[in-house]
Amino acid sequence: MDREGRQELHYRALEGDVSGIRERLTAGDDVGLTDRQGFTPLHLAAQESRDGAVEVLLGAGAPIDLQDRFGNTPLWRAVFNSHGEVKTVKLLLNAGADPDIVNQAGSSPRALARTMGADDVTALLAEQD
């Protein structure tokens, strides 16, 4: 564990290293381990739109709606960093992510998408109604 409270699995997720993620999970790393900011490997993979990593982590039972210390879920991070791409958001929604969990700033993934003007993401989230 480093000074940020991250283990190797966090970095593999951040980099989108699918084989490295599988290796760490096989070695017994905790898929739901949080760092000092409350980020799980899924938060990091979602933030970086590492779709393969998101799929593997979800398949391993990663907590889908765990909030970091700012109240952000992996879905919120995926929406914030989507840049018009919806695949990561769609993966999380299909896994059961809740688009209406509000963070400490009072923003849910659904509200964030509207505020950002991310029309494709907003439309995808509207399908969840």
UniProtKB/TrEMBL annotation:
Gene3D superfamilies with a match to the protein in the record: Ankyrin repeat-containing domain (1.25.40.20)
Domain of life: Bacteria
InterPro entries assigned: Ankyrin_rpt (IPR002110), Ankyrin_rpt-contain_sf (IPR036770)
Native organism: Nocardioides glacieisoli
Keywords assigned by UniProt, alphabetized: ANK repeat, Repeat
Key word Repeat present: yes
SMART domains in alphabetical order: ANK
Protein name: Ankyrin repeat domain-containing protein
Organism placement in taxonomy: Bacteria, Bacillati, Actinomycetota, Actinomycetes, Propionibacteriales
Stretches forming ANK repeats: 37-69, 70-104
